[in-house]
Amino acid sequence: MKTKAVLTIAFCWMVAIAAAPYAGAGAPPARQAGSPKGKMPGTVLLGSLAKKYGPVKFDHEKHVGTAGNCNECHHQHGVGQAPSCGGCHTIDASSFKKNVQLGRIRPCRECHSASYDAGKLDRPTLSAAYHRACIKCHREVGSVGTDPKGCTEMCHESSAQAKAP
Amino acid sequence: MEKPVKDAGGGSERGGRKDGKATVNRRDFLRGVAVAGGAALLGTPSDAEALHDLTGWPNRVGMLTDLTECVGCRTCEAACNAANGLPAPEVPFDEKSVFERKRRPTASAYTVVNRYESAKGSGNPIYRKVQCNHCEEPSCASACPVRAYTKTPEGPVLYNQDVCFGCRYCMVACPYYAPAYDYESALEPKVVKCTMCHGRIKAGGIPACAGSCPVGAITFGKRDKLLKIARDKIRKSPDRYVDQIYGEFEAGGTSWLYLSGVPFGQLDFPTNLPRKPIVENTKGFLSAVPLVLTLWPALLGLCYTANRNKEEKG
Predict the structure, then answer these.
(1) What's the pTM?
(2) Mean pLDDT of B232-260
(3) Cα-atom radius of gyration of chain A, to the nearest Å?
């Protein structure tokens, strides 16, 4: 009796373990595809260049609403000429991920090198590309105290400020 | 030792006189003088013309400032200050009140950024970075009586304090008002201007301002490449830029090139500069000076001697 019970429990365990990988297949995914916004990056920490200034806490989701078009920043199809992203890409969770994997949505640094490149003088460096992308709308950079705000108030505090309590 | 030399001199003089008597009469001599003088006068302009065809050092570098990109953050000023070990500014670099008046480079600031209101009254202000433009044929160098200026094969125009005696002709000669004078040191005259970070360039680096500009408004590279890039930009965005690369031809061309969205005159760029180098205006005259100073006394002296001999004879 005791042996039978132990065997049954052991069998159940084995079935459970074997079935575990398939368990999620039928069930709905943990995060709903729902709105495309929901599946895009939320807040991104842009810190690869952080040195004199700290990293930028970039609220991607917020900018999706305010920027007219993904192409305003993700310009690899050409600036200002491409139709809206939704025209070609179905922006749901899986296709968005696929696009990233296929390299259709590429990180800025892939084209814009962080350091000076004498062979690509016509291409802004990574820092310049980031700044231009933001400054296009946040033009009055450096006009500290007025609105739109200055460099440190708006985007990144300087390292000196960060160190000070 | 001295006597024979003197004798030899006298001998040759006499010999010359003899020769002169034998072969050169007054008319021939004067004709010779006229031909030599004409050649001296004619030779100079043709030399100047040949120099005018100079296309500059190959592979020389330059800078391209895109004024439509500049946002007036003054990071370039701060970087320049740090790279050249200049004294700390009176007002900090993130202070925007400096834009209330137009500034010029000074002994403690090799470059300054000035603000201009948009011509339409609305829209973003326009910022203009000012510094030495490193002319292809610098007028400061031609005006300098002691050769304190050098146009380097790399492109930058450099100043040498060791030979400068403080006449400040260079400041008058510069069409861009770039050289500044250090009035603090009365006994050691010192003109101060941008060096385009020549040392950094030689070491394989890039000028501090270009390296620090957060929006990439200043591009460092070979001047030929920069011109191509600038032309490309104008072609691709004709609405954004005026159809001119300032510095391509101005006063014979400069190493520093500019693109702008508004006519350059509105940003206080001198627009009355000739296409030919300013040096051209004085080159003919100045190159004749040594010739006149050396050749003419000799010729006139010969004339005088010949005449005196005749008079003595007569």
Answers:
(1) 0.73
(2) 95
(3) 24
CA distance B268 to B245: 15
Test the A interface: residue of B63, B66, B68, B73 with most A CBs within 10 Å: B73
B51 pLDDT band (50/70/90 cuts)?
Answer: low
Give me B104's structure tokens. Answer: 């010029």
Give me the amino acid identity at B303.
C
Does the beta carbon of A131 lie under 8 angstroms from any beta carbon of chain B?
yes
CA distance B75 to chain A (A): 10
- Supply φ then ψ for residue B259, to 5 degrees: -120, 145
Pair B190, B161: CB distance under 8 Å: yes
The 8 Å CB, 24+ separation contacts for B80-86 are B80/B109, B80/B110, B80/B111, B80/B194, B80/B208, B80/B209, B81/B109, B82/B208, B83/B197, B83/B200, B83/B207, B83/B208, B84/B110, B84/B195, B84/B208, B86/B110
CB contact under 8 A, B215 and A143: no
Q: What is the pLDDT of residues A48-100, one digit of tens each?
A: 777 778 888 888 888 877 776 777 777 765 555 555 666 665 566 666 667 66
Give me the residue spans of the domains in chain A: 41-163
- The one-letter code for the residue type at A52 is K
Structure tokens belonging to residue B215: 């929006």
A131 and B214 within 8 Å at the Cβ level: the answer is: yes
**Any residues with CB less than 8 A from the CB of B271 and at least 6 apart, and which?**
B263, B264, B265
* CATH 3.40.1390 holds for A41-163: no
Q: What CATH number belongs to B61-277?
A: 3.30.70.20
Mean pLDDT of A120-132: 90
State the DSSP code for B250: G
- Specify the amino acid at residue B164: C
